[in-house]
Amino acid sequence: MSDLEQGGGAGRGGRAASRHDAFGAKGTGDTSGFGGLVAPARVLSSSERPFGDENADAIYDALERAFAGLDEAIELVVVDRGELTLHVRRERLLDVARALRDDPALRFELLSSLSGADYPDDPSGRRLHSVAHLLSLTHRRRIRVEVSVSVEDPAMPSLTPVWPTADWHERETYDFFGIVYDGHHGLTRIMMPDDWVGYPQRKDYPLGGIPVDYKGAQVPPPEKRRSYS
Q1: Which single residue of 15, 46, 147, 166 could bond 159 by disulfide (Cβ 3.0 to 4.6 Å)?
Q2: Cβ(100)–Cβ(134) under 8 Å?
Q3: Whole-model pTM?
Q4: CA 110/CA 106 separation, integer angstroms
Q5: Contact indicator for 150, 209 with CB cutoff of 8 Å
Q6: 187 with 170: CB under 8 angstroms?
Q7: 130 neighbors 123 (Cβ within 8 angstroms)
Q8: Residue 7's pLDDT is what?
Q9: DSSP class of 143
């Protein structure tokens, strides 16, 4: 006979089974169910060379030939899932960018997009990242160029002198993340009102929302909702 048949159920004097939120979340108020997950600490380290990717090895070898002192300009080189990311020091960004654009073996003529990212636990203390995606139409290759800055000193050079397509991308990234692109000819908010306070896509920005009345009940904003369990 099972424990339940012997009266082990909560309704018949037995001990009720403990209940857990999805994925182990408990008592956090997190309504997503992911409150109990612990993300591994980020480790900043470069991929070992040779990278084992034909395009990545060819691009970095060509950049070494084209740009003297590359080791001082590049903080990290990461190759993951067939994608090459160059983490560049902000003071050398424009020099590296011109080499990527102008050298015949590289020819990254097009900046296809630029966006921001916020990593509050970045070990370097520079949590705001500006990420540019470059395309070589000549060699049919793509790379990513990333620069990180701190909240206290969020300035970095604008890429508009090298790739004019960075213009509106940098304005949007400034608007949402607060990264200041020095040398940009018109760095203004383009999504939020001019008098808006804060940068909505930073991780410490409130989720927002307004209370909603529905059939006599009130639905609070996301950050004020309690756990459903």
Answers
A1: 166
A2: yes
A3: 0.76
A4: 12
A5: no
A6: yes
A7: no
A8: 42
A9: E
The tokens for 43 are: 């480790």
| Phi, psi for 38 (deg, rounded to 5) | -115, 115
- Burial of 16-53, coded b for 16+ CB within 10 Å and e otherwise, reads eeeeebeeebeeeebbebebeeeeeeeeeeebeeebeb
- Summarised one tens digit per residue, pLDDT across range 16-63 is 455 455 555 555 555 555 555 666 766 778 999 999 999 999 999 999
Q: Which of 120, 127, 171 is nearest to 147 (CA)?
A: 127
Tell me the C-alpha distance between 12 and 178, whole Å.
59
Q: How far apart are CA 211 and CA 80, in angstroms?
A: 43
Give the separation between CA 183 and CA 77, rounded to whole angstroms: 26
Residue 61 CA to residue 205 CA, distance in Å, equals 41
Nearest alpha carbon to residue 163 among 132, 187, 130? 132
Question: Phi/psi of residue 10, each to 5°?
Answer: -65, -30
Rounded to whole angstroms, how far apart are CA atoms 125 and 204? 15
* Of 42, 94, 92, nearest in space to 69 by CA: 92
Q: Which helix (H) or strand (E) holds 118?
A: strand 110-118
Place of tokens 């480790």: 43
The phi, psi pair for 98, rounded to 5°, reads -65, -35
Phi, psi of 156 (to 5 degrees): -155, 160
